Amino acid sequence: MSHRTIRIEDIEPIIPFSRGTTEIFFTGHWSSKKPVYAEKTSPCRGGCPIGNDIARAFSAASLGNYDEALRIYRQDNPLPGVCGRVCYHPCESECNRKEFDEAINIRGFERYLADHGKVDVKHETPARTRKEKVAVIGSGPAGLSAAYHLARLGYPVTILEALPEAGGMLRYGIPEYRLPKEILRREIGYIEQLGAQIMTGVRVGKDIAFAELRNSYQAVFIAVGAHQGMRLGVEGEDLPGVMEGIQFLRSVNLGEKVKVGKKVAVVGGGNTAIDCARTARRIGAKEVTIIYRRSRREMPALPEDVAAVEREGIKIDLLASPKRLLSESGRLSGIECLRMALGDADESGRPQPTPVARSEFVVPLDTVIAAIGQAPDVKFLNDLGLRLSRRGVIEISPESTATNIEGIFAGGDSAGVRAFVADAIASGKMGALAIHCYLERKNVGEEFQSHQIGDRRSFSFQSFMDPDGYAVDLKRIVPYEKINTLCFSHGTRTNDSDALTPKQSIKGFKEVAQGIDPSQMTAEINRCFKCGTCTDCDLCFLLCPDISLVKTGKKGYTVKMDYCKGCSICATSCPRNVIEIGSTGASK
Amino acid sequence: MKQLLQGNYAVAEAVRLARVQLVAAYPITPQTPIYEKLSDMELEGKLTGVMMRTESEHSAMAACIAASLTGVRTFTATASQGLALMHEMLHFASGNRVPIVMCNVNRVVAVPWAFGSDQSDSLSQRDTGWLQFYCEDAQEALDTVIQAYKIAEQSLFPVIVAIDGFFTSHFMEPIEIPDQATVDAFLPPFSIPTRFNVEDPAFISNVVSPEQYMVYRERSFADMEKTRPIIREANREYQDIVGRGYEVVEAVNTDGAEIVLVTSGAMTSTARVAIESLRAKGYKAGLLKIKAFRPFPAEEVQEALKSVPKVAVLDRNISLGKEGIFCHELKSALYPLERRPTVTGYIAGICGADVSPEMIEDMVVEALKRDKPTDLPVWVRRETWLQKK
Amino acid sequence: MATKEIETEKEYMRSGHMGCPGCGLASTIRLVMKVLGKNTIVVMIPSCVGPISANYPNSVFEVPCFHSAFEIAAPTAAGIANALKVQGRDDIIPVAFAGDGGTFDIGLQSLSGAADRDDNFIYICLDNEAYMNTGIQSSSSTPQNVWTMTTPGGRQGKKKKFMQIIAAHRMPYAATASFGHPHDLMAKVKRAKEIKGTRFIHTLTPCPTGWRMSEDLSAKSAMLAVETKIFPLYEIIDGTEYRITHEPQGLPVSEYTKMQGRYRHFTDEDVARLQRQVDEDWEHLVAQTKGIC
Predict the structure, then answer these.
(1) Which of A263, A299, B205, C56 could cross-link A269 (Cys pair, CB 3.0–4.6 Å)?
(2) Concatenated DSSP letters of B206-221
(3) For residue B68, what is the nearest residue in chain C, using CA coordinates?
(4) Quick one: closest CA in A to C23, which residue?
(5) Option in B59, B66, B201 nearest C113 (CB)
(6) Could you say which of B154, B202, B236 has the minimum Cβ distance to residue A17?
(7) Cβ atoms within 10 A of the Cβ of B223, count?
(8) Which residues contact A214 (CB under 8 A, 6 or more apart)?
(9) Is the C-alpha dihedral spanning A185, A191, A195, A200 positive or negative?
(10) Domains present along chain B, CATH in parentheses
(11) Cβ pair B158, B152 in contact under 8 A
(12) C132, C210 in Cβ contact below 8 A?
């Protein structure tokens, strides 16, 4: 018998054998709705005066790329190592994560990057050098920031610093145990490597005439700070043993031999007061008391710094205001204070303290340090011909940092900017933009608005430098409701830890805080929502029922319009509000 | 050399000789000895394939279909309720055109509950697209199972080999078991390619449109017609190699007969005795054994009965509202004849009830007296037959 | 469970299928296929996999696929597996895709048989909690009091605790998974792939059409089912060793029910009852992970 060999070709016609592809069905026609990838802005960035691109830096770090994360920070901020230590972290107050469990330790992250990431200055150096030269007077955070951003734009910049070392308040106002000089020097070093020239020990008006500066430089940025301590204005202020806070800190930072008595009182509630108290403790005071006229809640110092003070055995006497200083045989012997009560809010928004009648009490002591505020050197500013405001600071246009003199711009404490490091850096950055626009004859207001973060006073320098390459919607800040919290697990915030016990820390000026424990860094990075930033997490790609999202190979995804049914799972599920739904208008 | 074996064991031997690669089964009386024997063979290493002890006949058939699609030779055996439970899968098997061979040990279908032989279980699977062969004895069962593989694998249709419960399945008979080499010479290894080729993937048996469905059905119908020569050829070849064979119908003394008795299955043996006796008494009686039910051997039946004036059909089954199923099929096969015989249907031996040669003789004699055909069958039970006597 | 390494570009399921927009089942199949890869034979049965897998002459899969019958997903895969064993092709894995009806109801017996034999295949239950392909009829997987077309007043029965049935079979590997947690799902498929025997993965596959919710919510509802502990993610090894693979947030069940129209008639009392049930089940599961139960 002839045995027929059955082949697959014999079977194919007799039962359904389907070899065609469903890809002939263009299900994309079912709907005109299609996903659009639109990176947005994180609220922490909105909260940051400098406008640090925090979420994007976290995203880079989450992929293990810490150098890139640091590079992202340095787009806006030349001093991450400084800010990572001393910033008042308004970013954390706006962190979406705080609605979920606790805010991310953003400052600790910034410090970690600055301490562990590698800076590639060569890569940051501009391709061309411009011909217009810019001078910056003062090397504090505002001056350094202005110089840094101007250098990035290609301007030859010269910083003139009156003191022997650059850094301004960072160098002479903040003690070593909070900001090691080495960190500051390193970050200033990067600014110099970028091309900014720093001349120290040069006092304008003495070593070089202001007029000469104006002739040699096409623009000047003044950021001379506020180094004049304010007086208590009470009886006995001129007694020996009475010191002014900022002067006290500067002397210690200069390495001068400064002596305090056994019992020290520091008047004031800001960071200068805190630093004075902790410094006094370190140079021999046995008993230190901080006297502050409002309650703890109103203290301008950071809560963590106030806590550090108490750990080091420093007392805080709240709702107390000095009435007069007492003396015994020509020497300071005590401070008589009045108890205060808090009333309605004053113009600073804080409750106004008013003295309680007949509440006088005496704190015995041998040293008083007044740390109730600082002001710029008005005489110096007047000599330059600058118009000053009623508060005794340089009057500037808030939009452009321009002063009354053409080509002269100002920022930082000397221009009345909020006395925090981050705000000073922000004002320097704004000054750089303003000077650039001035030299390029551009409208600084328009430029600013194009790169403004939300409706805040900050802008993205990266967007300004590379408007086409930086595809982030700066105007839209991601609210908590837009975060898909189902994609995250609850976790505990990792706080900075101390390297020293309080007992060890008061023995010297070694840095106390050590930031986030490196073993906890990944956990903290993973806690961050990275609001508005595509992290290539692949969730959209993996969820798509129609296999309509394709990885582009580098970063992000493209939509296969032919097949996407517009279900919008990707947009609704995106953990960080990157995807939204648009319309192709191509529906049948 | 012959061995004394019950029919169920003969079937198991055939499965072994056919080198079946996958057996899936579930126990049911009177099929169980097949399942047990195959299990013994597996333990002894005589069965080369895999045994799947499924939790139902339905799953047994599902597994056979899937395995067959994957490209291996499969076997199952069942009866009665088990076959009824398989019903859905029977359509599924033929629709998928898989060459499964199944032995059905005919047994009544409940209710009432009973266990005796009755062809209704397999005959009611008439329209599932399976080939059906009814065997007279254990030897034929063994030979038919082996032949069935050849037929199934050449035609891509599944085959039921039916044997009568307890009579054929359990009676000991001397059986000639061919040696392996002989069977191998007849039945080559399973060679139908897998439908699931990971190198050349396709979606098998997915949904089709009404128009396409009809195309497949028409094609299957045509292919079923093409099994006729395949069955014939397989038998001829088997006869050449093994020395035995079975036509789709077997006509005994039909030439010049005034009456022919038509039978199927085990009752044929009894009928042979009855016909011999009638012929000895002077009746011109012949016998037509129908082996193939699907495809129905209409031409062969016509050829055998075209000159016969009277026909009696003996059915061990009943289709309520009509008549015995073989009788009904036979009548419709005779319809194209110019001179159609007068056909009388007899229902006997339901549930294995006793049918003696004498009872059959009386049926034939009674049928010979009839001049008109009738639609209604004549029920013959031993009790009523004795009363009539 | 990090699964970045299995997220290759390669897909074994194609676009252009007829699944409803937002179909959680389609996504689940696709993720499973991504892990199983080329040497896979798909067994599907009447279910929503039907319209997704396509009519003649097309296929949604880039691997062989067979459209089997409703109640025989498991024995079909088992038959293929045994045939492959005979052929010495153990490198090819049959995978059965069946819905909740095909698993909890009509296919339960045959799945049980195959699991008892420990036939070598992977079974993926795509649970959308009703007969969705036929138009939202109640199954024994439909949660209690939930609306379907055949339970217009809310379903009487309680959803079967199916994983307990599975555990009772002592399968080498069983797990629950959700496409809302794709990495977890893929890791489980990968683990299943590396084990021999009958492996079972119970996936919850939200159906926007049948659950009466907006189609964009299917993934979110899948995530919520997990985070409310309604559908916890865990594994069972050899039917005895329980392991929770994702610690749920423990959100209130109302977060899940309020987004779906099939729960619209739920009173506060109904929600509270569901919450109690979910809490009890969770405690039981946690006890099982500690070997207490």
Answers:
(1) A299
(2) ----HHHHHHHHHHHH
(3) C83
(4) A545
(5) B59
(6) B202
(7) 16
(8) A220, A407, A408
(9) negative
(10) 2-241 (3.40.50.970), 249-388 (3.40.50.920)
(11) yes
(12) yes
Residues 90-119 of B with CB under 8 A from A: 95-97
Our count of domains for chain C comes to 1
Record: contact B52-C80, CB cut-off 8 A: no
Tell me the sheet residues that pair with A235. A324
Helices (H) and strands (E) in chain B, counts: 15, 16
Tell me which residue has tokens 């420093």: A314
Q: What's the CA angle centered on B268, arms B266 and B273, to 5 degrees?
A: 120
- Test A16 with B195 for CB contact under 8 angstroms: no
Tell the residue number behind the tokens 């705080």, with chain if given.
A98
User: Token pair for residue A252?
Assistant: 């210690």
Those residues with Cβ within 8 angstroms of residue A6's Cβ, 6 or more apart along the chain or in another chain? B153, B154, B156, B191, B192, B193
B97-135 burial, b if ≥16 CB within 10 A, otherwise e?
bbbbbbbbbbbbeeeeeebbbbbbbbbbbeebbbbbbbb
Contact: C59, B202; criterion CB under 8 Å? yes
Q: Which residues of B touch C10 (CB under 8 A)?
A: none
What is d(CA C118, CA C41) in angstroms, rounded to the nearest whole number? 18
Structure tokens at B242: 């093994």
Q: In this predicted complex, what is the ipTM?
A: 0.96
Point out the residue among A24, A30, A486 whose CB comes nearest to the CB of C224.
A486
- Residue C71 is part of a domain; what is its CATH number? 3.40.50.970
| Residues B169-225: tens digit of each pLDDT | 999 999 999 999 999 999 999 999 999 999 999 999 999 999 999 999 999 999 999
Helix (H) or strand (E) holding A289: strand A287-291
| Model confidence pLDDT, tens digit, residues A186-204 | 999 999 999 999 999 999 9
Neighbours of A127 (CB within 10 A): 5
Residues sharing a CB contact under 8 Å with residue A307, sequence separation 6 or more, in sequence order: none
pTM of the predicted protein model: 0.93
Answer whether A566 touches C (CB < 8 Å): yes
Pairing of strands B342-347, B378-379: parallel
Q: What's the rounded Cα separation, in Å, for the pair A537 and C283? A: 32
Residues 228-257 of C with CB under 8 A from B: none
Angle at B213 between CA B210 and CA B216, to 5 degrees: 155
Taking the mean position of all CA atoms in its chain, how far away is CA C127?
5
Answer whether B53 touches C (CB < 8 Å): yes
The whole-number average pLDDT for the span A9-29 is 96
d(CA B279, CA B217): 46
**Interface contact B111, partner C, CB < 8 A:** no
Cα–Cα dist A472/A478, whole Å: 12
CB-based contact A172:A163 (threshold 8 Å): yes
pLDDT tens for B215-253 read 999 999 999 999 999 999 999 999 999 999 999 999 999
- For residue C268, the enclosing domain spans 3-289
Residues C16, A26: C-beta atoms closer than 8 Å: yes
Query: What would the two tokens of residue A206 be?
Result: 């003495």
Q: Is-contact A97 A75, C-beta < 8 A?
A: no
- Give the number of other CB atoms < 10 A from CB of residue A479: 12
Q: Half-sphere exposure of A500 toward its Cβ, with a 13 Å CA cutoff?
A: 17
